[in-house]
Specification:
heterodimer; A: mainly alpha; two-stranded antiparallel sheet; 15 helices; B: Rossmann fold; six-stranded mixed beta sheet; 10 strands
Chain lengths: 405, 247
C-alpha cells in the first residue's frame, strides 16, 4: 500500500492545506498583518478542529453520539492549567519573598502559593489534587490520565449495560453537567466558578505574547496534523471497517465475534484523550478556564460542527469546526452590522444562535453529508441509491459507472 | 459419535409464554441437520439461545469436544468459539465493499489492538478472492454490498460465514428470496460444507429440505416432536396433525 494510493489523497490534500495555512499565518504575523489576538483565535480554532476530529471518530464512524466530549477537553485544560498557575505563582511568590532579605523556606513558599491561588475561595492550603502541580511531566501525564480514566470508567459502565442511541447521549450530557456543577463548588479544589486564570503566562518564559501565541499556534497545527494522520490510518484500515460496521449493525458485528462493547470503550477512551490533549493546547491560548466550559451546550456545539462539516469524513469535521467556530466568534464579536427591519433589528450577537440553529436543522434535513458532501460533487463520486436493486438484467447490459466503482 | 453441540432440557419463557419447553438437541461434528416446524415453534429462539442472544431459564448448552457451557459466554465469545449464524434477512454491511465485508469476517484476532495492528497479507487477499469466487461474487469485490441483489447479499453472507471458519453453522432460511437455480446452488454448497463441519438449517420450504437429504428435527411448541429422515417424520401422525396437515 503506497502513500499515493487514492484513498490517502484526502489526507495529503489536507496536510498540504494545513501546512500552507500555518506558513501563511506565520508570515502574516511576522509582518504584523494579523494581530496577536487573532493568531490566538486561529490557534484555538485548530484545537477545536482537533476535538472535532475526535468527535467525528466516535460519532461519524462509530455511530456513538457522545454529548460529553467537551468535558474531557476542559479537563485536559484544567490539568495543564494547574501546572501553569502553580509554577507562575511560585515565581511571583519567590520574587516577592526575596524582597524580604532572608531566603524563603519551602514552607513559606508553599504557603504563599496556596494563599495566592486559593485566597479567592477563602482557603489557604493546597488541596490534595494539587499534589503534582509542581511538576510539568506529572501534570502532563494527568492531562491524559484523568480524562482517560474518567472515560474508561464511564464508558465501561454505560457500554457494558448496552446503553445506546439517545439514552447514551443523555447520559453523557448528564456526565458533563454533573462535572460542571461539581467544579462550580468552591471546595472542589479548582477555585470554583473563578476557574484557573493567567494561563497565557508561561512560567520561566520571557518572550512576549506575540511570540508565545505563534508557538502555541504551531503546536496546535502540529497536533492537528499528527492526529489527522493517525486517525486517517485508523479509519482507512480494518479498524475503521469494524467501527463503521458497529455503527450500521452492531448485533451482526457481535455474531462475527467482535466484542462490540470493547470497541466502543476503546474508541470512547481514545477520543476522550484526544479531546483532553486538544484542551491542554487550547486553554493556555485562551488564558482562562472555568466550569462554564463544561456546560452541556459546549458538547452539543461540538456535535453541531461535525454535523455541519460532514460526519464520517475527517476533513468534514475539521471544516465544520473551523468554519462555524470562526463565524461564531465573528458574529458574537459585535462587529457584524445589525440589520434594521423597521419593526425590529436583527442584532447578530443575539441572532447568530438562531441562524446557527436553522443551519443545523437545514443541514440535517437537506444535506446530511454536510459541507464535506460538496467535495463529492467535485470528484464526481455519487453513491448510487439503488435500494438494493440489481445492477441490470445481465452482465452485458449498460451499467451505471459509479455503481461499479 | 460424540456431539459437537448438545442442548439438554432447555426452557425459556417470555412473559409466561414457554417459547422453548424442555428442548433436547444434539448434532455431530460433521453433520447436516434441518429443523422444520410451524411458526412459533421456537426455531428462532433455539438459534438465539445457541448464539447467546437469549439466556434460557434452565437447562444446559455445551459445545466442543471438551464440552464448554455456552450459557456464560457473550455473543462475541460464542462466535469466536466457532459458531457462525446466518440471519433470515441478508445482513451484510451495505456501506462497505464485498472485500471489506469478507475481510471483517476473515478468521483473525478480534480484539481492538489486534485489529489495529492487522495488515492484509497476500494470503488474506487470496482467501477473500477465493471465497468471493466460491459464491459467484469474484468480480464484485470492490462493489459496495448495498448495490448487490437480494440473492447476491445472501451469498455474500454465506461467504462471510465461511470466512469465519466456524465449526457449527446456524443457517436461518437460506433459500428465502432465491431463484430455483440459486436454491440448487445453495443446497450443493450446504451439503459440501457439512462434510467438514456441522450445519443446522432452519427452513420452511419442504422441497428445499428434501434436496438436503439429511436428518430432520421437527419442532413444535418449543419441543422436539419428531426426528429422523424426512420420509420418516412426514409419516409421523403427530407431525401431520400439527404441521403438514395444515398445508
Amino acid at each position: 500500500m503506497t502513500i499515493l494510493h487514492p484513498r490517502h489523497r484526502s489526507a495529503l490534500v489536507f496536510l498540504a492545506c494545513l501546512a500552507l495555512f500555518t506558513i501563511g499565518v506565520t508570515v502574516a504575523a511576522h509582518f504584523g498583518l494579523v494581530s496577536t489576538s487573532f493568531v490566538k483565535t486561529l490557534g484555538k480554532t485548530l484545537c477545536l478542529c482537533l476535538a472535532a476530529l475526535a468527535m467525528d471518530l466516535i460519532w461519524g464512524y462509530a455511530g456513538i453520539l457522545s454529548l460529553g466530549h467537551m468535558a474531557f477537553f476542559a479537563l485536559g485544560g484544567y490539568m495543564i492549567g494547574m501546572w501553569l498557575m502553580y509554577a507562575r505563582t511560585e515565581e511571583i511568590v519567590i520574587a516577592s519573598l526575596a524582597n524580604g532579605g532572608l531566603p524563603a523556606t519551602p514552607e513559606e513558599i508553599s504557603q504563599g502559593i496556596a494563599t495566592q491561588i486559593f485566597g479567592v475561595v477563602g482557603a489557604s492550603y493546597l488541596p490534595a489534587i494539587w499534589s503534582f502541580a509542581y511538576s510539568l511531566p506529572l501534570q502532563l501525564a494527568l492531562v491524559v490520565a484523568v480524562p482517560g480514566l474518567l472515560a474508561l470508567v464511564f464508558g465501561w459502565l454505560a457500554f457494558r449495560s448496552r446503553v445506546t442511541g439517545v439514552y447514551l447521549s443523555i447520559l453523557t450530557q448528564a456526565m458533563t453537567l454533573a462535572l460542571a456543577l461539581y467544579l462550580f463548588q468552591n471546595d472542589s479544589g479548582l477555585r470554583g466558578n473563578n476557574g484557573l486564570s493567567g494561563l497565557q503566562n508561561l512560567p520561566g518564559i520571557t518572550a512576549g505574547q506575540d511570540t508565545v501565541s505563534l508557538w502555541f499556534f504551531w503546536a496546535s497545527a502540529l497536533a492537528l496534523a499528527l492526529a489527522y494522520v493517525a486517525l486517517h490510518a485508523i479509519v482507512s484500515g480494518k479498524f475503521g471497517s469494524v467501527i463503521r460496521a458497529i455503527r450500521d449493525d452492531e448485533a451482526r458485528v457481535r455474531f462475527l465475534g467482535y466484542s462490540v462493547e470493547g470497541y466502543k470503550l476503546f474508541v470512547f477512551t481514545l477520543t476522550a484523550v484526544i479531546c483532553a490533549l486538544a484542551g491542554a493546547l487550547y486553554y493556555p491560548q485562551a488564558g482562562i478556564i472555568n466550569p462554564a466550559e463544561l456546560a452541556p451546550i459546549a458538547s452539543i456545539y461540538l456535535a453541531v460542527w461535525v454535523a455541519i462539516g460532514g460526519r464520517g469524513r475527517l476533513y468534514g469535521a475539521v471544516i465544520g469546526a473551523a468554519l462555524v467556530s470562526l463565524l461564531s466568534s465573528w458574529f458574537t464579536g459585535g462587529r457584524v452590522p445589525s440589520i434594521p427591519l423597521g419593526f425590529a433589528t436583527i442584532n447578530w450577537v443575539d441572532w447568530w444562535q438562531v441562524l446557527l440553529g436553522l443551519t443545523f436543522v437545514g443541514v440535517t434535513l437537506f444535506a446530511p453529508k454536510g459541507i464535506g458532501g460538496l467535495f463529492d460533487h467535485f470528484t464526481g463520486s455519487h453513491p448510487p441509491d439503488r435500494k438494493g436493486a440489481p445492477l441490470g438484467p445481465d452482465d452485458g447490459s449498460l451499467r451505471e459507472r459509479e455503481a461499479e466503482a | 459419535m460424540s456431539a459437537l453441540l448438545e442442548v439438554s432440557g432447555v426452557t425459556v419463557s417470555f412473559d409466561g409464554f414457554r417459547a422453548i419447553n424442555n428442548l433436547t438437541f444434539a448434532i455431530g461434528a460433521a453433520e447436516l441437520r434441518a429443523i422444520i416446524g410451524p411458526n412459533g415453534a421456537g426455531k428462532s429462539t433455539f438459534m438465539d439461545i445457541v448464539t447467546g442472544k437469549t439466556r434460557p431459564d434452565s437447562g444446559s448448552v455445551t459445545f466442543g469436544e471438551r464440552p464448554v457451557s455456552l450459557l456464560k459466554l457473550s455473543e462475541a465469545q460464542i462466535a469466536r468459539a466457532g459458531i457462525g449464524r446466518k440471519f433470515q434477512r441478508p445482513t451484510v454491511f451495505e456501506d462497505q465493499t464485498v472485500q471489506e465485508n469478507l475481510t471483517l469476517a476473515l478468521k483473525a484476532g478480534r480484539g481492538p489492538l489486534a485489529v489495529l495492528r492487522w495488515r492484509k497479507s497476500a494470503a488474506d487477499e487470496a482467501r477473500v478472492a477465493e471465497l468471493a469466487g466460491q459464491v459467484g461474487l469474484g468480480d464484485s469485490l470492490t462493489k459496495k454490498a448495498g448495490i448487490l441483489s437480494h440473492g447476491q447479499k445472501q451469498w455474500l453472507e454465506i461467504a462471510m460465514l465461511l470466512a469465519q471458519e466456524p465449526r457449527l453453522l446456524l443457517v436461518d432460511e437460506p433459500a428465502a428470496g432465491m431463484t430455483l437455480a440459486e436454491r440448487e446452488k445453495t443446497t450443493e454448497l450446504l451439503v459440501e460444507i457439512a462434510k467438514t463441519r456441522a450445519v443446522v438449517v432452519v427452513e420452511h420450504d419442504m422441497d428445499f429440505v428434501r434436496r438436503l437429504s439429511c436428518k430432520v428435527t421437527v419442532l413444535h411448541e418449543g419441543a422436539v416432536l419428531a426426528e429422523g429422515s424426512l420420509d420418516h417424520v412426514t409419516r409421523n401422525q403427530s407431525v401431520i396433525d400439527v404441521y403438514l396437515g395444515r398445508g
